[in-house]
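Re-run with default settings, no changes from the original entry. Doing this only to confirm the output is reproducible before filing.
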Amino acid sequence: MPLISVTRLRIRSPWYLPGFFFYTLRSIRQARVAAGNSTVKLLPDAHRTFWTCTSWTDLNAMRAYVSAGPHRQSMKRLAHWCDEASVVHWEQDALELPGWAEAHRRMQQQGRPSKVNHPSAAHLAYRIAQPQSGVTSAKAK
């Protein structure tokens, strides 16, 4: 059954944006060739916040991507770069990605915070702001 993965990251300072963008571009390229990935969708949001939404053929394919290459390298830095971070995964019948309103709803109801070294008050309370800006998509395959 297809797996949907959504992440939300808020970069705590403009100082960290160049490094974040470098690893984001590398991770997108990695996802495009990853076995089991169908689609990658990105949303640059307000206040240095970034959402990703990906579809995978199964949990093992998503885990293989997360634990390798540029994505793994970026994960080592995110706890320092971010003051808010969260993730949610769910299975659904189709590989089609949900809209951002549904991703937000799932994040609030089923998601979990990720470890950050400098959590904001919103992160500590697990308050997830609704996405505010336009959509950027990238077909993975």
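DSSP finds five helices and six strands in the chain. The first strand starts at residue 3 and ends at 11.
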